[in-house]
Amino acid sequence: MAARTKARKRAFQILFESDQRGADVASVLADWVRHARSDTRQPPVSEYTMQLVEGYARHADRIDELISSHSVSWTLDRMPAVDRNLLRLGAYELLWEDGTPDAVVLDECVQLAKEFSTDESPSFINGLLGRLKDLGPTLRD
Fold first, then answer.
1. Residue 87: exposed, middle, or buried by beta-carbon count in 10 A (0-12, 13-18, 19+)?
2. How many other β-carbons are positioned within 10 Å of the β-carbon of residue 54?
3. 15: closest CA among 47, 43, 44, 57?
4. Residues contacting residue 117 through CB under 8 Å, at least 6 positions apart
5. Residue 79 DSSP code
6. pTM
7. Tens digit of pLDDT for each residue in 64-104?
């Protein structure tokens, strides 16, 4: 598995854990980093994972607003938690990270949905992230 793919998967896991625990995402990230440093059996948290999680945290309110306003007939709280957090990660990376091609972001979020969510989730995530991608940087502010 490529390094960025692993980093993206870990970032998703951190966002998901934060969501499930109702904990601050920065605190969950710090827990993951501390645990990886104190237990050699745990994989390290990469710089890119930290960049994704911290970036999401900086723009969390705007990202949730965008997901809510562009999803059809779905509120954030009604979405499966996996989907909600994959959308958060994908939206951040599409709109604020310029180093990864949009097609890669979409594909990897869809692959994570196939691995962790429902049968309908990949197409839902692909459609909503595709909508955000098409609107692009105009959504940042």
1. buried
2. 14
3. 57
4. 80, 82, 83, 86, 125
5. S
6. 0.95
7. 999 999 998 889 999 999 999 999 999 999 999 988 999 99
Confidence of residue 61 (pLDDT cuts 50, 70, 90): very high
* Distance set, CA 132 to CA 60, 93, 108, 111 (Å): 15, 11, 16, 18
DSSP codes joined into one string, 108-129: HHHHHHHHHS-TTHHHHHHHHH
CA 41 from chain center: how many Å? 25
CA–CA gap between residue 101 and residue 84 (Å, rounded): 21
92, 55 contact by CB (below 8 A): yes
Residue 34's alpha-carbon distances to 37, 85, 127, in angstroms, are: 5, 22, 36
